[in-house]
Amino acid sequence: MTAGTSQLGIGLAAVARPAYITSGRAADLGAHRDVDDLRVRTEAVLDAAYAAGIRYVDVARSYGRAEEFLAGWLRRHPEIDDVEIGSKWGYRYVGGWRVDASVHEVKDHSLAAFDEQVAETGALLGPRLGIYHIHSATPETGALEDTALHRALAGLRERGVRVGVSTSGPAQADTVRRALEIQVDGAPLFTSFQSTWNVLEPSVGAALSEAAGTGARVIVKEAVANGRLTPGAPDAPPAAAALAAEVGLPLDQLAIAAALAQPWAWRVLSGAVDPLQVTSNAAAAAVVLPPAVVPALGALAEEPRAYWSARSARRWS
Asked: Which stretches make up the NADP-dependent oxidoreductase domain (predicted)?
């Protein structure tokens, strides 16, 4: 394991349920996406990630059967005791294992939802759970103002689980800063932040740097922009593809290397759905970006509201 590879994590959002918003799923997954197919695929991804030196796994209650698949993989590998697990609560998967479901997940940040979902996560992952995030916390859901919920989350903290928030949307920075202000019993409640950061949408970077400065862990998700920053993606920005060609790197490696280069990033998640993608993503850990490339990467940034509007319009497939 290299130091760079150990900074990577593997996320199961795209592999443990039949539909998601990542580009190229028809080519990546094919038509066979029943529970057993995706269980086998998930375990192959986990095997490849572990072999590559990755020791952090990200799941969520809404990622289909991600927690179940991960728990099964851990049972089949009792020798593995050095993997840290982060999960999330606040969405329920309601897609019925159908690609064409009209609704795939439902958001609920109530105390009742937390009580229900933390019990479900605990039944599957037990003491292996290291971090529990509010899934896509935003000001609109009220989770950052609900003092009864904060007290319940503090109880989880007192049992040794790190409590955090994941963020989405153009106001990610505001969410991170508001979460940093919340204390329970004189101590910060949220000490882990999982946010979307990539070269197309880097606007949360300063807030994540502030979070890291307090001692919080920062986890980067969507470093390849839901597949837009991968080789051959039909919606890859031409400037990004041209820059990758200029520096002689696959686009996914350029994107992940840019995220790994952020000094505040504790982990950068791969969302690979097969071992070859894991291998390519992991190779980014060995990439040293030339200083001359940094301004060109910065020039790829899109206006945040436009980025998130386009992401919201992506089709589940």
From this structure: 43-299
